[in-house]
């Protein structure tokens, strides 16, 4: 459709419009873009489009320009429209092809070259056998492009692993953001996760407070903890250290990040350590805002991540069989090309001998000039490996050397056939070399499929829920420390003296107002999540009751900040 939909001078414009629609579809956010990227390789649409573009004289330069872009060569496009279309086609090819840029550029150049040779052969009315052979050259290059394209199974698996990698990056960013805003040494996790069976203080996700627990299992940087129940005889006031009595939650276990558990033997129960230092407030607020941004990123990515996880895992065995089948087909084609290459070399030698004989015959009628012409004839014959364009110039020169005699015509015809055969021989050599590179690429992809078959599929929904919960816990931890520090400043023994400084009042009010806006946003966010997760795990795999408790705490913080402003007004009035 790209080449036939708008023939003639309108073809490049039609091609650019079509490619622009394809790029927009494949770059769409979320499930729609992922589906388009899979569809473009499974339907072979891109490979068929490349062949159509290469066959059309008006769009063939677009394929050549794309090859130059892929390999970063200096050859510029002929027009701005061609440059735009080449950028679009490059984007599609790089996104869909598993080959490295050098191989992809080589295949595109071969495709354009083969298509031009076939068109020239038909225009020159060469034999049907030669035309068919050059059509076979196109088919072979198209087959190599096809073999280089990522399969649908590979694309879907890559999407899953990309999502898992992105979640890992987000979790690392969360840890970095939390470390940047953390000031209490009690909240710094140990270098290594606590061992199974260890008694720990564990942070309860719903309220950010720490309760007694025991580690059941360790999974990398994640822990499964069992909440402890208070003993029958317990010291008065210590029941607040146990989740069931302090909160009334009957949950038995929880999955927590390693940063949310501290050894009970070496640590007192963690609690906020407020600071009246304004620099620390700014640090806390900045960390909380960063964590809010991460939380928003996770929520935005959640639908796409869940959609990819809902797709059944690919059958690695079938994917490996498909790649092995392609590899076998390439080997058979490469063997056929090797046989044809040997035949072409024999034919090229025969054409050379015929051209030499005809040239010598043409020079018999002019004995005085024969010796002068022989070096030029030998020079022309040595250039039989040149391209067809160069050959036309040589044919014209040979004709002038011998007049209109039939012997010179025979020499020119023999030289033309030799050059055509040499041109095909060159393309065959390049196609065989490209086929070997594609074969090596298939070996790499087969190895990746084997690793994929043996590796456990990442539990993306579970990782998403844990990451989202971790972001919320770390954010609330920063706000708890910030609100505690503001309370110390406003209600502390030095508050009356500090309030006499207008600059201090302005600074504290500014922090309270900024904190109030951030906490208001967090409250609205957790209220919405609590509603979305009601009855199921919602878009992020979270529990509704956890988000409801978090929203309740944020609401309490808003009230505390309002009390701080009232307190400052009273201090200022005295």
Question: Can you tag this structure with a few keywords?
Answer:
5-stranded antiparallel beta sheet, mainly alpha, elongated, 5% strand, 18 helices, 574 residues
Describe this structure as you would to a colleague.
The structure is a single chain. By secondary structure, the protein is mostly helical. The protein contains 18 helices and five strands. It has helices at residues 11-26, 31-42, 45-55, 60-71, 80-96, 101-123, 128-148, 152-181, 243-246, 278-310, 316-362, 367-382, 388-402, 406-454, 460-491, 495-498, 502-532, 544-573, and strands spanning 199-203, 210-219, 222-227, 253-257, 261-263. A five-stranded antiparallel sheet has the order 4-3-2-1-5, with no helix packed on it. Strand 2 and strand 3 form a beta hairpin. Helix 2 runs antiparallel to helix 8 (152-181), helix 4 (60-71) crosses helix 5 (80-96) and helix 6 (101-123) runs antiparallel to helix 7. Residues 181-189, 363-367 and 384-388 have low confidence and may be disordered.
Give the percentage of residues in beta strands.
5-15%
Strand tally: 5
**Percent in helix:** over 70%
Low-confidence residue ranges? 181-189, 363-367, 384-388
Write the layout of secondary structure elements.
Elements: H1 11-26, H2 31-42, H3 45-55, H4 60-71, H5 80-96, H6 101-123, H7 128-148, H8 152-181, E1 199-203, E2 210-219, E3 222-227, H9 243-246, E4 253-257, E5 261-263, H10 278-310, H11 316-362, H12 367-382, H13 388-402, H14 406-454, H15 460-491, H16 495-498, H17 502-532, H18 544-573
Antiparallel strand pairs: 1-2, 1-5, 2-3, 3-4
Helix pairs in contact: 1-2, 1-5, 2-8, 3-4, 3-6, 3-7, 4-5, 4-6, 6-7, 6-14, 7-11, 7-14, 8-10, 8-15, 10-15, 10-17, 11-12, 11-14, 13-14, 15-17, 15-18, 17-18
